[in-house]
Structure formats: C-alpha cells, structure tokens
Amino acid sequence: xxxxxxxxxxxxxxxxxxxxxxxxxxxxxxxxxxxxxxxxxxxxxxxxxxxxxxxxxxxxxxxxxxxxxxxxxxxxxxxxxxxxxxxxxxxxxxxxxxxxxxx
Amino acid sequence: xxxxxxxxxxxxxxxxxxxxxxxxxxxxxxxxxxxxxxxxxxxxxxxxxxxxxxxxxxxxxxxxxxxxxxxxxxxxxxxxxxxxxxxxxxxxxxxxxxxxxxxxxxxxxxxxxxxxxxxxxxxxxxxxxxxxxxxxxxxxxxxxxxxxxxxxxxxxxxxxxxxxxxxxxxxxxxxxxxxxxxxxxxxxxxxxxxxxxxxxxxxxxxxxxxxxxxxxxxxxxxxxxxxxxxxxxxxxxxxxxxxxxxxxxxxxxxxxxxxxxxxxxxxxxxxxxxxxxxxxxxxxxxxxxxxxxxxxxxxxxxxxxxxxxxxxxxxxxxxxxxxxxxxxxxxxxxxxxxxxxxxxxxxxxxxxxxxxxxxxxxxxxxxxxxxxxxxxxxxxxxxxxxxxxxxxxxxxxxxxxxxxxxxxxxxxxxxxxxxxxxxxxxxxxxxxxxxxxxxxxxxxxxxxxxxxxxxxxxxxxxxxxxxxxxxxxxxxxxxxxxxxxxxxxxxxxxxxxxxxxxxxxxxxxxxxxxxxxxxxxxxxxxxxxxxxxxxxxxxxxxxxxxxxxxxxxxxxxxxxxxxxxxxxxxxxxxxxxxxxxxxxxxxxxxxxxxxxxxxxxxxxxxxxxxxxxxxxxxxxxxxxxxxxxxxxxxxxxxxxxxxxxxxxxxxxxxxxxxxxxxxxx
Lengths: 103, 665
What we know:
The complex is a heterodimer of chains A (103) and B (665).
Chain A: H1 8-13, H2 15-48, H3 50-53, E1 56-58, E2 61-62, H4 63-101
Antiparallel strand pairs in A: 1-2
Helix pairs in contact in A: 2-4
Chain B: H1 2-27, H2 31-35, H3 38-42, H4 53-62, H5 80-104, H6 108-113, H7 120-131, H8 134-147, H9 149-176, H10 181-185, H11 191-225, H12 229-277, H13 282-291, H14 293-304, H15 312-318, H16 329-342, H17 347-350, H18 359-390, H19 393-399, H20 406-418, H21 420-462, H22 469-493, H23 500-523, H24 529-548, H25 556-576, H26 585-597, H27 619-636, H28 640-644, H29 646-655
C-alpha cells in the first residue's frame, strides 16, 4: 500500500487541530478524573463512613445501596454525554480540519 | 483446501494426544503439577481446599467455581439429556458460524481484525461477550447471595473500568493501531525490541487469564453435566482452537455476540421471574430480604466471627450494608485500581477496537458494551438477592462454598415453580449459557495471544515485516493452534492448582505493565523505546512478584495456625457440652479436618512462612511503579526520533488521518 505523505508537524500546528486538541484533552481527562473520584468514593465511603451508608432512604433501602446503584447511572451518563459532545464537537472539528487540508 | 485438511487432521491428532495425556495423568496425579507449564507452575500452590474454609470460599468466588462438596440433599441436579442437547445446539450454531467465517478469512486483516468490517453495534455486543466471564456470570451473583451489599459493590468496578476504555484508549487505538498492542507501541520506537516485549506481556496476560478460565470451565462442566474434568478441558479446548484457527476474528466475534445475547436473555428472564414473585415492587423486594429468617440467621453467623451479635431484623438489614465480605479497604481500592486501569490494558479487549472501521464506530461500540455490561450487573443484584431469598444462603453454601451455583439453583427453582420440566429446561439453558460464556472468553484470549506471537514476533521481528498475506494467515493459524494446544495442556496440568489468583494477576499485569505504556505512547511527546521497555518490564515483574508473596498463595503454616484455632474452639465447645452429648455431625467433621490441617508444615511456593505483602491485589503499588518506570526510562534515554514523530502519532490518534485501513488487500 502506497503511503500518502503528510506534513504531520504542520497539521499539529494548524489552529483547527490545536483547538480540537485543547477541547479534547480538557474533556477527556477532566471527566476521566471525575469518574475515578466518584468511583473510589464508594470503597472509601464503605470502609471509613459506614454510618452514612446505613442511613435508610426509601423503606429499608439505604444510602449505600443508592450510591452503588448511582455509579451505574453516572457511568452511563458520562458515556452518553461524551458521545453527544464527540459527535457534535470533536467530529465536526476533525471534519473541518480534514476539509481544510484537502485530504 | 489442503491446508484445511491438514488442520482437521492436526485437530484430531491433538484430541487423541490430549486424551492420552489425560489418561496418563489420571494414573499418576502426582505428576500433573510438575508437568505444569511455566506460568501455572509459577503461580502454583496446593489446592484452595487446603486453605481455611473462609479463605477458600473467598478465593473460589473471585475466579473459578470450586468443586461442590458432596452433600446429598442440596445437590444441583441437571437433566443431562436436555443440557447436553442444548450444548450440542450451541456447538452446531457456532460451527455453522465458523464455516461461514472461514470462507471470508483470506488476509491477515481478515484473520486479526475481521477485515475491519464489524459494525459499532456488533462490536459492542462482542466486547460484552469477550469481557463477561463465567466468574462474572456465576461468581458475582453468588457473592451477592452470600454477602449481600459487598457483592454488589464488587460488581461496580467492572463497569466503571469502561470509562477509561471509552475516554482514553478506544478511539486512539482504532486510529493509531492495526492488529495488536505491539502495533501501537512500536509506532515511534525501535520496533523489534518493543514488539518482542509487548508480545511477551500480551502472552503473559492471556495465559494467566486463559488458565483461570480453562480450570474454571473444566470444574464447571464436571459439576454441571458430569463430564470428567479432563474431557471437559479437551472438549472446550478443541472448540476454542476450531473457532480461532478456521474462523479467526470473524468467528470469534460472532461466538462472542451469540454468547452475550444468550447471557442477557437468561439474566432478563430469570430477573423477571424473581421480580414477579416479589410483585414487581422493588421496595417490597428489599423488605422481603430484610425480613427473611434464613438470611437473618446467615448474617448472624457471619458477624459472629467478628464478635458482633446481631439477630432478627437487624441482621437482615446488615445484609444490605457494607463489610460482610470485603474487610480490607486498601485491598478493595487496589482491586478497583486494577480494574479501572487494567481493563483498558487487556490485549483481548484492545484488539476488539481494530475490528471496526472508524473511531466513531469504536466509540459507539464501547457505549453499547457499557449498557450491556452495566445492565447485566444491575440484573445480577436481583439474581443474587433472589437466590438468597428463594434458595437460602445455607442451601447455596451447601452446594458450593463460594456461592458459584446460586444463579443456576435459582433458575431451577424458579422454573420448577411453574412446572418441574420448566425448571430442568431453564437450568439446562443457563448451563448452556455458562458453556457459551466460557467458549467466547477463551477464544478471545487465544486470538489475542496468537496475534502477538504471529504478527509481532514472527512477521515483524523474525521476517522484518516481509511476509505475504498467505504466509501471514498461515502463521496466524499455526500459532493459534499451538497456543490453543498449550492452553489445553496447562488447563489439564493445573487441575489441582489454586488458580484464583491468576485473574488478579492478569489484571495486575495489564494495569501496571500495558496501560501505562499505551497511554504514554499516545499522549506524551518524550516517550520512547527505553520507556516502553522499562515500563513493561517493571510493571509486569512487580505484579508477578507481589502476587507471589501475597495472601493469594497458600501458606501451610498459616493454614495450620488457623486450623489450630478451630480445633481449640471446637474442643472447648465439646468440653462445654453436657455429659453424654456429642458435637453435631458437621462440627465433628470440621474438627477432624482441622486436626489434619493443623499438622501442615512447610512454606509457600517462594519459600515463605507467611505473606510478605498483605494485599491480594498488587495494583495500588504496581501501577504507580509501572508509570514511574516508564517515565524514568524515557527520560533517562531520550530519543530525538521518537520526539519528532510524536506529532504524527498525536495527529493520527486524534483525527484518524492516514489511518491504517484494516482492509488493505
């Protein structure tokens, strides 16, 4: 397969790429750190603040259970939000960049 | 065509050789451990049954189902005709898939990446099928049925792990990679050494995971349908080799999709039955748990070990609170880290992203996989609690101390509530699901290991990348065959070994060795050959070393110490009994066993009296070390070429410009 030659350094300096790179980095690492913090609150909370986990919320269902269940919805929420932003913003910027470079 | 014949002949030869091997080691069981190939022998320790009962339960729950103690009244009886019939249906369908897939597998891209022709949705189901092992399916619901809340909390990390996959690795890998981990890592480094080390790490992770899966499979099949352990391993092994050798990634993908579909149908159906019994009222369902006298009694006994006295509704409520199973918070955090970092470093998961045509499809596939996997674990809660209510924890532990049979027992009972034959059918269906689960996971692992050996080592290191499509596919098929055959041998040899720690080990190596170097390759300009190699070596060696000196291994002196305490307690109990009364049958048996165990002496595999490292999961230490080694290695031996090429990698991974098309016929 004949590899097409690209000037990678020039693309990396293209303002469109710089914008894409900044937006993506902030979003990806920001939400990744958020998800990790939220997740590790679960084992930490279960170990060091069992009192809060035992508080009953609905009937016999306690805070600990709701918190563990919320992990699933938070993960799904982040996934859907990422997909929304990526489809709308990141993919658009990528397309614009490719159009501009006439690739 | 002649090649196909050669393979069919070879498969037959392998099965005969395997049977002969099985025959031989049955005669001389003592020889089997010695014959274990390197990874199994490294991790080998006397069987889990030699450990204290509690520890054995915890171990077996994490990975492989433990054999059930023979106790007549709680036996799990499968209808063999129906079960084997369903197994045959699954084998027939998957074989049909293989025949179809074999016709489409002509190039290396077809073999390793299904020609890039898998859609996002299909790949999402396949990821779920690749990831959820029998340990997730049977183990986690078992944990919930015995320890309530902690089992549920344990399941959370397996889903959260996919946030890392989604945000950090999936799309960059699709954009910058081709078939293997080595492809990503060798982009701007010296390809030969990097590929060699990446292949070693991939093969190590896959072998650890594969061994745990094979041993689990053998024990499960023996327990469920009474097929002897060695025959089960050989049977599963031949199917696995057949799928991968003939059908490559296409067949593996479809086996995984079929399995995920079966698994979800089984879980949904069983959850509906459980909730129907509770009147579809979630709050009422939890009331039933708290008020169930069997659960209350079970919890009272559990907390009594910690010197806490609880009874009645308080004990029932305790089942919904943390701390019955996971006693060491640091270990739990360490496990969480291994999952969050390790899933994204698993070669068989990474490989799945090369099968889709675009980054968008990779993104979509992770999101679909997250909904399937997450949905499954939420349903698992219902199954676990449902089993605790309807089967009782006492009956579950009577069949298997780790609770691995809880879901299957639940299926039989819930089905039998409608009609006895439906109970048998439903149980047979779930056994078939477990069977499909094993096949799907082991096939993915064999494919990942073979790709590393054939594509990285043979084609790119030995042949300098100069191999035509025909030769590449041939090499891939031969390698898969050899890897599969080794898998069978190791599986047979490891029958009596404690393999539970191998899953922890696989995740530890993936999280401490693979993930740091993948992330740094994709995101850090100064990263280079020295960084990749030091990161992989330090991460892998630290993980293995820490697991070898961890409580996962068996320490005869510790076992003896525990047994002595049991002997003392039971003798005290006996002395306190009124004259003429004797201990219950169960206590007498326990006393006899403890007296035997108390005689144990010796050291662990690496010659220790007691664990040097107190955590079962090394992640909390080995992950930072892996990152640190990768960074220090890169800084100590800077490479201008690697830095100059960063722009290319970074633009490629972000935009997909210049992407290696999977279809390059």
